[in-house]
Amino acid sequence: MDRAGRISAENLRAVEQARASGAEVMIVTGRSWRSTLPYYRALAMTGPAICYLGALVVADGTGRVLEHLPLEPAAWHPLRRLALAEGLAVTAAVAVPGGADGPAGGDRGRELGLAADVAYATGRADDFNGWEDWNPYTEIDPALDRCASPPTMAAVYGDRSVARVLAAFPDGLPRAQFDLSDHIEGETVLHVWHEAVDKGRALARYCRERGIPPEAVLAVGDAAMDVTMLRFAGIGVAVPGSQPAALAAADWVASPAEAVARALGSRG
């Protein structure tokens, strides 16, 4: 996508060419399913999509859930208590109703219903710009009463709230990981995921279950969160202007269209 969130005609053609060659095309993203769906449709996809870095896998365009890995109660409850006690700006993204009450990371094919993709926030952060861009459908719920179970992902917004959470939990939270890789000046956000959530791990699991070897995979990314995916793939591609970590992990630096043309050309 470009900075306006549009897929170029060139990249749309590249996806069509890849699919026509017999390749399977898949979205692996940190976005929610709700935010991914417009791009899924634009690319005329019909199969699974990996969302929330791998915390959610949907089966198809209906949003039928195949796998879900929310935060553990031991991680979510202390974070929620701190946020409410000190007025921190925290959001809870809920991909699947019931959260951790369902089978976390269940066997592929064991469906958990449809992705709900709702989000709740204690409130907006005064020291965070671009709230609407980051939270297009987040509802304000000061006590987070509507988040009945541990969410798929929690996010802490603004310098003050992020600093307080990091100070309160210097060793992290149980079975969780902190991610500050999206840091932008004026838009500090700390994501909190289950410790097993990882793009590379999710894609590797999918490929293993489908009998697809790593050397038959081409992955395209641009950020630190893409590094494990780029390293897993036989050909890891970082687009020009990617974050340094992605550039260092990549085999090629190319646009998606250039990478597909080069890969198909190498196959004759």
UniProtKB/TrEMBL annotation:
This is Hydroxymethylpyrimidine pyrophosphatase-like HAD family hydrolase. SUPFAM superfamilies: HAD-like (SSF56784). Pfam families: Hydrolase_3. InterPro entries: HAD-like_sf, HAD_sf.
